[in-house]
Structure formats: C-alpha cells, structure tokens
C-alpha cells in the first residue's frame, strides 16, 4: 500500500514533467474548471434569490448542501479524473504496459497524466463550503466538523465507486463514456437540490439510489432537519460508511473485470 | 524445474456483436452473442533457465497472444502458465520484477519524456540500487550506442533508436527472463545487428533466458538454438534448429519471375509462395535436377528472371507449413 503510494508519486512526477511543456494550458484549464462551477453557482443563487427558499430550505442551507456536493464531487474527480482515458487506453492496447510493471494498474492509470482543471472544481467547492458553513445555522462543534469531513470523503467515495465500477466495464471493449456521463448527470441533477422538492416517486427513487447520501442526507443531519425521505433519521450519519462500501465494491469489480482485458489485437 | 512452463494454453478472444437501437449499451453489455476467435489452441512448452528460444509462425498464428499470456497481460481462457514459480496473470506485480518485455510495435517508454528520464523512472519503479543502476546504464549506453539521443524525448526518436531504448529499459533491473516480440521489425541492418549482438550477449554472459518472436530468419539463425513453431494456435515443432534443417534441407527453391501472373503447375515441384508474378518452387534435387526443372518451367511459362535459392531456415519453415496444410 505504501509502495503503491510511492510508485504513484514517482509516476505522477513523470506525468508532471511530461506536461510541464504545456504549462500555459495547465493554468487555463484550472481557470476553466473554476469558471464552470461559478456559472453553476450563479444559476443557483438566481433561483434562490427569486424564491427566497425552496421547500423550507433557506439560501444558506441550500448553499451548504451545494458546497458539500461540489467538494465531494471534487474529492473523487481529483484522484480519479484519468478514468476518462480508460476506453481509449483499452482500445489502443495501452493497458498492456501497466500490466507488466510492478505497480497496481489502477495507480498507473490514475497517475498517467496531470489534469489540473479538477483542482479548479475543488477550489470552488471548498470556498463555497467555507462561506456556507460559516453562515448556516449550525453549531460547529469538533464532532460536527469531523462529520463534515467524513461526509465529503463518503460522498466522494459513493460517486467515485460508481464511476470506477462503470469504467471497469470498458475492459470488455465496450463504450462506457455515455453511461459514466449519465451517472454523473444524475448525481449533478438530483444531488444538488434538496430531495424534498421532488415528487413522491422521485423521493423513493432517491432513497434507494445513493444520490441522496452524497450531500442531501448529511446536510439534513447537520442542520437537524427531517429529510422527508422514507429513511430513518440516522441515515445521514451512515453516508460515510456507505461510501466506503460502494468504493470497495467498485474496486473489487474493477479488479474482477481486469481479467476481461483483451488488448488491442496485435 | 523449467523457468517458463505453459500447459494446454488456450486463449479465445470474444467480441460482442454490437447492438443498435434503444438501450444499446446495456443490451450489448448483457449480450451472449459473441464472435469468438481461438487465437491460441492448446499450446504447451517448457523453457529452461539460460535458453534462447525462437517462437515462430506465420502472421496471426498466435505468437503475440502467447507472449501476452506468459507476461501476465492476458488471462488464459484455459490451461496453465508458470514463470519463475509465479502465475503471471494472478501475481502481476511479482511477475513484473522477473521479466523484461519488448514489443516491436509498442514502446514501454514515456512518450513525452527524454530517454534518460524514462530510464530513471524505471530504475525507481523497480527499486534498482543507485550504484547498480549507474553501472547498468553505462554499460547499455555503450553496447547499444544510446549516448547521442539520451536527452531526446522518446516521441522524437527513430524506430531503431526507440527499440534500443526499449531494450535497455527492459534490462535495467536485470530480470532473469526477456520476452521479445518482433524486436527487429522495420529496422535497418545496422540497428538489427546491434540488437542481435546485445541479446546474444545477455544470454551468453548473464544467462538471461530469452523468448523471441520474429519474421527475420537472420535473427533466428544468429540467435536461436531451439525453435518452437506454431500455426493456428498449435505447436507444430519444438526442438533444435539443426534436425529441422536436415529434414527439409534436401529441398531447394527456384524463384521465377513470370512475364504475367499465372498459376504454375509443374511435376516434381511445389509452389510454396506466389506474389505478383513471382513464384517460389520447392523441389528435391536428388530426384529432380535443377536444370530439368528450369527447362520445364521455361517451356510452359514466359519467364523473365529466375534464381536458385540455397535452403535457409525460412525456406525450411515454408516447406514445413506447406506439408502440414497439403
Ligand atoms: N484483442 C484481440 N481481439 C480479437 N482478436 C484478436 C486480438 N488479438 C489477437 N487477435 C486475433 O488472434 C489471432 C492471433 O493473433 P496474434 O497472437 O497477434 O498473432 P501473431 O502474433 O502470431 O501474428 C489473430 O487472428 C488475431 O486477429
Ligand atoms: Mg504478433
């Protein structure tokens, strides 16, 4: 495990040196990531300003949830962004060389290239979260702060676990980018708003799908609000555990699918 | 105990026939409608430490697929592989430290980094002690002639330079086993010779076990003492080079260039190859004198050029494949 981390750093160093020649690119990408998130934030702010509150949630409540969701999203997108390369690398047989080096193939895939625009997402999420957390009606005890951190990691693991599992299907030389994009869209659409605003079938779907566990349920737990979903009150506190479970499942599935890798055919 | 051992090795490639229409991705995912290619069909052989084995066969015979199973890249459909006591596809990271791999078609190096930087990464990933690393690098730079392009990014190297770089990278951590899949394809004579010399040296001086696929018979004649010949995923011959040559050596080849392409049929000789009006005829000089065959051919066809070829390994193998099919 420690070795994988060290090997990952060695590889990341190489990837960084390889992209260093495109340094201008790196920073413009990062700025683009932050700008993209800012547009999303402004949209939300406009909606809230017009209606004041949504389903009894004030602007600062929603902002807390939105910040949590954005940060959780960045928490998986920062380490796992190279998953988007998988289809191309499978098709071109580039996975071959990962399999003959003494490092976990997933570590090699993830450290293959440095993509800094995700750090723009992370920055946007953290700033929003910090502002929202200071303004929200929450008494920030150390325990609540610790839970917030766990909730971010848990939310990241929920989304990341799904993305990893879906990416693993690419080993069967099937296109998965559409599916990954769809799942990301579901998390974006339903993860950024209080689940209460959806209709009853929507709420039931949300309590079965883990989407609500990324940000909505942990935020309800922090704010001491009823989620309105057919789930027990402590469900929000279970989110980090669920994240660990889903991430582990995603990784085990990834490992099992690796044996379906067929190479590029000569 | 052999260092490399494959038993009843089978690899089937499955391609799902893609579905179209609604939910096509999901339906393709659960589809049982496969197109199956049996690329390797029950291959077995054992290689002892220190051997240098040529693994030969026509295009599509299953050579690369076998090598990919031996290196742990592919998981066999059935059968077993054991390399230095490790099942490659199960314990990839352990296996990786025992083997060097060079594919002629695809570089293992970092495309955007200078060659020197790629080497340094390999050295660190394989945890080569610094003194040992410096010593190996110096030796390889000299033997393979790398000095002039050590600081050039890999993507700017010529094919010959890149291959030499790949070879050095594969041996920096001194693995006891080296797999070479068409290491000389597309190279000029000088680069080929350099690579042969390097491989021969590794085998002779360090006792590195080498498994080599190639289409270049000079590689084989120069390097291999033992051959494994395969076709359609099956082993046709496994043994020393000499008896194979003896068995088929009586045959000579007559190469004729026809004025226009035609189907050549002459008694006492077999067409072993034909392309664009050039025809390779194999015959046994003990029963059919070359002169009479030449007379016969020129009488029936309009011949613009001809030459007589002494038996080389390539002719021997062609002859052997012909007999298998015939
Ligand atoms: N990834 C793959 N998917 C489908 N078919 C493949 C794949 N790789 C190889 N094949 C097929 O398997 C057969 C053997 O290929 P290969 O092992 O590359 O042959 P060789 O190296 O002897 O030329 C060929 O028919 C080839 O088309
Ligand atoms: Mg091949």
From TrEMBL, chain A:
Q: Does the keyword Transmembrane apply?
A: yes
Q: Which UniProt keywords apply?
A: Membrane, Transmembrane, Transmembrane helix
Domain of life, per lineage? Bacteria
Coiled-coil ranges per UniProt: none
Q: Transmembrane segments in this chain: where?
A: 30-48, 114-133, 145-171, 204-224, 236-254
Q: What is this protein called?
A: Transporter
**Which species is this UniProt entry from?**
Actinorhabdospora filicis
From TrEMBL, chain B:
Q: Does the keyword Cell membrane apply?
A: no
According to the entry, every stretch annotated as the ABC transporter domain falls at 4-257
Q: How does it sit in the membrane?
A: Peripheral membrane protein
Q: Which GO terms describe its cellular component?
A: plasma membrane
Q: Cite a single GO MF annotation.
A: ATP hydrolysis activity
Cell compartment(s), UniProt:
Cell membrane
Keywords from the named record: Antibiotic resistance, ATP-binding, Nucleotide-binding, Transport
The Gene Ontology biological process annotation of the record reads: response to antibiotic
Nucleotide-binding as a keyword? yes
Spell out the SUPFAM superfamilies in the cross-references.
Answer: P-loop containing nucleoside triphosphate hydrolases
Q: Which InterPro entries match?
A: AAA+_ATPase (IPR003593), ABC_transporter-like_ATP-bd (IPR003439), ABC_transporter_ATP-binding (IPR050763), P-loop_NTPase (IPR027417)
The name on file for this protein is: ABC transporter ATP-binding protein
